[in-house]
Design goal:
Radius of gyration: 21 Å
CATH superfamily of the largest domain: Type I PLP-dependent aspartate aminotransferase-like (Major domain)
Low-confidence stretches: none
Strand order of the largest sheet: 2-10-9-8-7-3-4
Distance between the termini: 39 Å
Structural class: alpha/beta
Helix content: 40-55%
CATH class of the largest domain: Alpha Beta
Number of domains: 2
Mean pLDDT: 96
Largest sheet: 7 strands, mixed
Number of helices: 15
Strand content: 15-25%
CATH architecture of the largest domain: 3-Layer(aba) Sandwich
Length: 411
Amino acid sequence: MLDVDAARACFPAFLSQDAVFFDNPGGTQIVQTSLDRMTAYLLRCNANHGGAFKTSVESDRVLSDAHAALADFVNARSPDEIIFGPNMTTLTFMLSRSLARAFKPGDEIVVTHLDHDANIAPWLAIAEDRGLTVRWVDINREDVTLDLEDLESQINHRTKLVACCYASNAVGTINDVRSIVTRAHSVGALCFVDAVQAAPHLLMDVQDLDCDFLVCSAYKFFGPHEGVLYGKLDLLERLPAYKVRPASDQPPGKFETGTQNHEGIAGTMGAVEYLASLGRGNTTTSERRAMLARGMEAIRSYEMGLQERLIEGLQALPGVKIWGITDQSSLARRVPTVSFTLKDWYPRALASRLAGSGIYTWDGNYYALAVMERLGLQKDGGMLRVGLVHYNTVAEIERLMSALEGIVGGR
């Protein structure tokens, strides 16, 4: 069971301001263990890679430890399958360029209307460059879930890559990634998974999913602005890398171009250590993957209650339309990222009004442009998004409901 008060005490942001952070899908608050790791790195071993002296050797040890921590986080087979970079978007553009070398005119790529544009635009770019065909998978408008029948019809023997999200950053829908991967592999295609929105909420297991690539961003799971890419080792070994000549020819080094953000990598390890600490409980085991499993289970259980209360409260307000899964029996098919529109209110104006009450939400398309266009909401300013994580509370949801009731009632 999650002790939310103890969890909140680990986040310095709550000590310095009386704000309700519901902007979490855009970036969570940073945890103290992440800050400690970053500070320790900068003070004790701030050096470049590969030197013969003490601080460089220690720096390399920290980076090696961080690769191992993130391998545990996603359950990779080897730390060499973990690549760090500036963010998910940059890493995806980088990898798409490497993959494009093997694609030929007439080959096909499958993308979806449910995805963040960072898992669409890179593939559109290489399709244009290489003369590829792009196929789009539609969504079910009533609950904003992926149309799996349409997915089935879009994948064929010409498909070379299927790009999908683990969870939608716009409406919280969780995709059945394992079945998508299976379908892609059945025709010899690769599957690239955007797990940015899933990472703070769900235990990830790339071995179980059997995905070829999976990417996430540490600043969405309580760490610094750092991106993380998983790739199957045999694929990473075969793929060409755009790099300087003296750099390693083996992963992860051949894809981690230039001098990396070492303190950010250390801070990302600190975020993983925090999540593992939530699973320590009364057990004596110190095996990090097992602790992560228990910690993420506690988070998931607690957040299920939060999202149920949020959806219930929003549904009681006149003029509110929630976009996404709302059936109480199906809430396990979503993460607690809830977006809605309010009649006669432009999302930006609503976000500004809530911000005046110290409640931070996000408005617009959140770079999920394809979702907004498909739902016909882009021209009207998109939606208002309330993104919960485990440090949020029922009291904060009640504060939101009170503010919205005042807005709806004209106060």
